[in-house]
Amino acid sequence: MTEHLVQYQGFWLTPTMGLKTLMWIQYHFKPRPSDIFLATSPKTGTTWLKALIFATVNRSRYGSSDHPLLNTGPHDCFPFLDTYVDGNDRSLHELDAFPSPRLLATHLPFGLLPNSMTDDRSCRLVYIYRDPKDVLVSKWLFMNKLTPKL
Question: Does residue 1 sit within a domain?
């Protein structure tokens, strides 16, 4: 949390994770027409919406007793694209190995998503927006749970 921030196209990002992730996605990642992306800012209902989309897309693939969401969290079934950024070709090979439709999420703001993701018919994009006051309260309560009690 003490890392410096840089402003890029009107948004504040960390140099190593946010800016590096953005550059990798913009220059190397190619979405498939069947891909489904979930773009959210933190604390806007990302986990809930990941579970809902995964269950909807895979409703006929799994039975009620072997559904992955019974044993695994939504973040494992619907991973963040940001976690695959490591600066080498391994990232691309891992993403290419995902079966279609690929379900991927990101916390990048809509204005920073590359045209390859926002153009019509390049992929499906679900973007969730929440009232900033509600996000602030949710973030405040979340951070207070992480703060050690004296």
Answer: no
